[in-house]
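Think of the structure tokens as a kind of shorthand, similar to the way a musician reads notation: each symbol stands for something richer, in this case the local conformation of the backbone. In the example below we present two proteins back to back. Begin with the first one, reading the sequence and then the tokens, and try to describe in your own words what changes along the chain.
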Amino acid sequence: MQSKRVTGRELLKKYDTTRRMAQQYLAGPRSVMLPADPDGTEFWLEPVVTLIMTRMGSGRSDSVAVFAVPNCIRYDAAELVLARHAVWDSQGDKELCKNEEVHAARVSTGYYPLSHQRRDAVDGILTSIDQAIPSHPFAVEGLALIEHPPGPQLSNEEVSPVNYIQCMLRRVTKFQVVELYWTLRDNTLSGLDNSCRNLADFVISVATGNAARIDVKEKYDIDPIALGKLAEE
């Protein structure tokens, strides 16, 4: 029997529920544990950097992150460092919402242990991100209720959605947490844009290469499935 196609408000509601779950998965867990210690009583890892990139009009979002042992436990250069890559096919989930119930967003996630050589590469990339954050462009806006002179006009090519990538960066260090949201344009790349692209390219190359996956238990502040059920109420 052919299922009933969903349209209109019902489709928007179903897709919004799926989108909320996907955003939680892309943002990633606050910690991960290994199967040998699933409750994290002795050992766990936390994200030191998370980057989400969504190219407008592509229907795809990539999330890359690096997890390490938090300083509150201990520091040992031999400890495990993990790269995380998550991908959400938003267009595919939107099509599913038209034809069937969606119980969870289709976000594929993998964790990959980094070798000493790859850890050195990550250290260099994170250093470049740290150096670029203070000089990242920030628009002077004030209260935004007062009219300011208009900025320069952009060409049709510059405003084309395919030239835009929505970015979210969360960087955690010993003393600070920085979270930035901005739009990356292919034709005007800042130092932070280039460093973030290097991070994304590095993690994706690890995930799509011959690196072995590792099983972990994710722990979220808000469980994505529970958030989806709450959104349906």
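Once you have a description of the first chain, move to the second and do the same.
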Amino acid sequence: MFFVSAWRSGGYSNVTGRGYGFRFSNKMHLLLPEGTLQLWLPALGRWESIKVAVSRCPEIRSKFIGQQIIADGKVPWPKKQPPFYVMVRRDYAKFELLPRTDPVYGSMARFAAPKNAPRWL
């Protein structure tokens, strides 16, 4: 299970969903499989393939993620208060996206990957 926050680049679009993604806490993104993963987006009602470049940055970006965030009514969000989601692993490279409904207390740092954790967790 991964706790992620919504993220947007400087060139985002509230119409197409371009420029949105998810940011992972600390080194959690290193636990994702590199390449392509399948993400179930409930608002869109389908699985979407999303490219992941683990070594580059702690975000995954996709217009489909943006469309999900927009469909959830989370756009726009207050500065420094992005919405949070939970990604639940269903298979090695398959994840289901769930909105996080409980309030966020403090930093996401408590969800950091343990040292020497295998990449497939």
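Compare your description with these statements about the second chain. The radius of gyration is 14 Å.
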